[in-house]
Amino acid sequence: MGSRSRARLATAWRALRTGIAFAAFGLGSLWLAFVWLRVRAVLDRNRSEPWRRAQRGIHRLFRWHAHFVEQLGLIEVHWIGAEQLRGGGPRIIVANHPSLIDVVLIISRLPQADCIVNGTRAQSAWLRGSAGAANYIANDGGAHVVGEATRRLREGRTLLIFPEGTRSPTEGLGRFERGAAHIALASGLDILPIEITVAPRMLMKGQPWYRVPPRAGRYTLRVGEPLIAKDFLDGTESSVRAARKLTDALRARFARGSTNGD
């Protein structure tokens, strides 16, 4: 067998394992939403905060899936500064979004995390049941999102935000929305950034799942130093201008890292 044939066979084998990983995630999501969460709701019907049970269930599913994908040899995951994620909130965690499974990797480390999700995506067959049970915040824009996120932070909860709103482009970063900055300024909390790099790039926006890289994607998730939100308020400018400055500083922080991989 020639080298080209071996390479094609290896690629087909990696694509098959990727398909298995996607199927396992879909089945796990359906089981969580329509079996486990419903059974637990009946057994724990006298307990308050059902959203907490759902978020912990999502955390366990994502932790299992991240381990499963690693065992399949599709990814390698390396954390730097993960000890900063221990404990609970209140805290605002912000990450860039180079690939499809970034949220899986981060929530696998967070037993409790409120997410701001695209309304259309949250209504997909895979996420509708679990996202609804977890009481994630639908991103319908406007002051409602900032107000609801701030209220939850004041209850001592963790908030996870991807300010690009979708996966990053092939080169560099996408446009950063200002929601994370407005929430940080309204709540008085700092922003804890997680810089994600993956090499070679995989599961990018617009990339079919079967278009696999030649080797396992090496994910590095670096928990950086917090951005101090109050440093962007001098008492004389509007919150809109302060949010713009904070967002620019946040994007510059991520841009200094290598987000493209190789």
Summarize the structure in words.
By secondary structure, this protein is an alpha/beta fold. It has one domain (3-256): Glycerol-3-phosphate (1)-acyltransferase. The chain contains eight helices and seven strands; from the N terminus they run H-H-E-E-H-E-H-H-E-H-E-H-E-E-H. The protein has helices at 3-43, 50-71, 102-107, 119-122, 128-133, 143-154, 179-187, 239-256, and strands at 75-80, 91-95, 114-118, 137-139, 158-161, 191-199, 217-223.
How do the SSEs run, as a string of H and E? HHEEHEHHEHEHEEH
Distance between the termini: 29 Å
Widest β-sheet, arrangement of strands:
1-7-6-2-5-3-4
Rg (C-alpha, Å): 19 Å
CATH architecture descriptor text: 3-Layer(aba) Sandwich
CATH topology: Glycerol-3-phosphate (1)-acyltransferase
Report the sheet-strand fraction: 5-15%
Strand-helix topology:
Blueprint: H1 3-43, H2 50-71, E1 75-80, E2 91-95, H3 102-107, E3 114-118, H4 119-122, H5 128-133, E4 137-139, H6 143-154, E5 158-161, H7 179-187, E6 191-199, E7 217-223, H8 239-256
Parallel strand pairs: 1-7, 2-5, 2-6, 3-4, 3-5
Antiparallel strand pairs: 6-7
